[in-house]
Amino acid sequence: MSIQVITKIPLKSVLSAAVIVSALGYFVDIYDLLLFSIIRVQSLKDLGLQPEQITDQGLMLINLQMAGMLIGGVFFGILGDKKGRLSILFGSILLYSIANLLNAFVQNIEQYAILRFIAGLGLAGELGAGVALVVESLPKKIRGYGTMIIASVGVSGAALAWLVAEHVHWRTAYLIGGLLGVGLLLLRIRVSESEIFHKVKESNIRKGDFLMLFRNKKLFIKYLACILSAIQIWYLVGILITLSPEFSKAMNVQGEILAGKAVLFCYLGLAFGDFVSGWLSQIFASRKKVLFIFLSLSAISIALYFQLHDLSSEIFYTICFLMGISSGYWAIFVTVAAESFGTNMRATVATTAPNFVRGALVPISWLFALLKPQVGLLPAAAWVGALCVTLSFVGLYALPETFAKELDYHEQ
Question: Could you tell me the CATH number of the domain that includes residue 202?
Answer without folding.
Answer: 1.20.1250.20
